[in-house]
Amino acid sequence: MADLFSPLTLARGPALKNRFMLAPLTNTQSHPDGTLSDAEFNWLTLRAKGGFGLTMTCAAHVQAVGQGFPGQLGVFGDQHLEGLTRLAAEIRRHNSVSSVQLHHAGNRSPKDLVGTPVSASDDPETGARGLSLAEVEQLVEDFVAAAVRSEKAGFDGVEIHGAHGYILAQFLSPEINRRDDRYGGSVENRARIIHEIIDGVRARTRPDFQLGLRLSPERFGLKLAEIIEIARRILADGKIDYLDMSLWDVFKEPVEEEFKGKSLMSYFTELPRGGVRLGVAGKVTSPAIAAEMLEKGADFVLIGRAAILHHDFPERSRDAAFTPVALPVTAEYLANEGLSPAFVQYMSAWPGFVQAA
After folding, report:
1. Counting CB atoms within 10 angstroms of each CB, which of 76, 145, 186, 300 has the fewest?
2. What's the predicted TM-score (pTM) here?
3. In sequence order, what E strands does 4-96 have?
4. How far, in Å, CA of 309 to CA of 332, rounded?
5. Which of 311, 263, 270, 256 is nearest to 289 (CA)?
6. Domain 2-324 CATH superfamily
7. Where are the domains of the chain?
């Protein structure tokens, strides 16, 4: 367990005081215009106070048309700066590194929120419209501008959300991306948008501004072999500070038959990473599992559901006898852990999470 509480240096910016990173968690608590609410401020800063080495926001959309859920935090306009600045300062006050996750939902944007959603290509299944070349270039610019805005607000860094079937993963998917320009076709072309965002953030933020990337290797038309190669190149480039692999379950084997026989996680921990740190997410629900992931080659772990249940999960993990609370839990319990009624309602849709009233 001691390794969980050793500091983690990154190539740029402040070190994490431990190996616990708060996963970027949808919580539906902010205002309809994307400005930060007191409820989301309280939820996040309570986790910083609870000992997380890095406290990350929920997915924050970089374009209004990229909104993915009601009550989503925004980072697409200067109207968001006041709330973001307040949030960054309070996270720092609790000695936690701060990050905004930069996001665009693409074809997963609800029509009732954005009208016609957009994607890498026309998508009859969702009704999404394929972006023009100029619009792809604008999307790159808006990701970069959101990073610059996050820096201005006082955050230590940002994470680019390239996972879970959202717009950057839609570009990576050979099933969804049917473009015939420089952003489609080969895996190099489909990954181009991510490389351009990384280069743009590096060029327009200070030298010690931290940059992470979240990838997921399965579902939504993604091919494991391609994601491995994309990760390999990005790790070799050394332009990001950490790679956050969202694995759905850190113990699972790949779904693709030719890759079975070892864990999905191992395909990424065995890649050369130079000075880039590697984190894993997916059902890390106890201190013992967190410690095991470090033993298996991860540099840090991202805590999701367990952080909802225990705002102070890192501090509690110092006690070897700590056992996380069993599900389901009451709405009152979650309120005491800093969840607003809107967040509790959202969690009620997760089977077996919230006890029926």
Report:
1. 186
2. 0.97
3. 20-22, 54-61
4. 12
5. 263
6. Aldolase class I (3.20.20.70)
7. 2-324, 328-357
